[in-house]
Amino acid sequence: MSPSVRGLAAVLIVALTSTALAAEIVPPATRDVTPSDMTPGPKGEGPLVREPAPPRPPDPARWRRFFLPVTTDAATLVVKDLTIHIAGVTALAEDETCPLADGTEWPCGRTALYRFRLFLHGRAVECYFPYAGDVADITAPCRLAKTDLALWLLQQGWVRPSDLATDAYRTASAQARCSHLGIWRDAARPSFCPQG
Asked: For the chain, which terminus, N or C, has the lower number of CB atoms within 10 Å?
């Protein structure tokens, strides 16, 4: 076979193959599975685009139990990499002092922490919050059995109510101040206290 005949044969084979490919009808990528008694959906003309899955909705808030949490002050619990601040109260710093009537200071922050640890006494604490994920610092209501920890701390006078405290918390703190409990033991009697 001469080179010109081989070239002509190659061109003829390529031309026949491309004509056969262009004439071939390719069915759509998806098949219509609509039952005969229903109207079929619209046909897509463009490429199919896969949408990313929507983010998973957050877990609902629930009571989560913690065994032997570390207490860093009278209203903060630390469990592994999670720090939980008890909602509704503001704790004293551990090294904070409070004045006595004779002008001396007493370690009220350390005493508050000590009393809180005595109350917990190694028992499990539960706090109410949704799954925290990578969050390392949260504020949540906490309880020991059925005892609201914020309310107990306020009733004993070991913390102050925060700006977001409920009326029940503010009332408990006021009663502790009037009774000179906890950090209020040598504080001047407020004017809102009942006489007697």
From this structure: C
Segments of the chain assigned E as strands: 62-66, 70-73, 76-79, 82-86, 89-90, 98-99, 105-106, 125-129, 137-140, 142-144, 147-148, 160-161
Q: How far apart are alpha carbons 154 and 185 in whole angstroms?
A: 13
Q: What is the full per-residue pLDDT of the chain (196 aa) written as tens digits?
A: 554 544 444 444 444 444 444 445 544 556 677 888 888 777 767 666 777 888 888 889 999 999 999 999 999 999 998 999 999 999 999 999 998 888 899 999 999 999 999 999 989 999 999 987 888 999 999 999 999 999 999 999 999 999 999 999 999 999 999 999 999 888 777 778 887 6
Which of helix, strand or coil describes residue 137?
Answer: strand
Pairing type for strands 98-99 and 89-90 reads unpaired
What is the layout of strands, in order, in the sheet containing 70-73?
Answer: 70-73, 76-79, 82-86, 137-140
Residue type, 68: L
In the block, residue with structure tokens 């704790």: 91
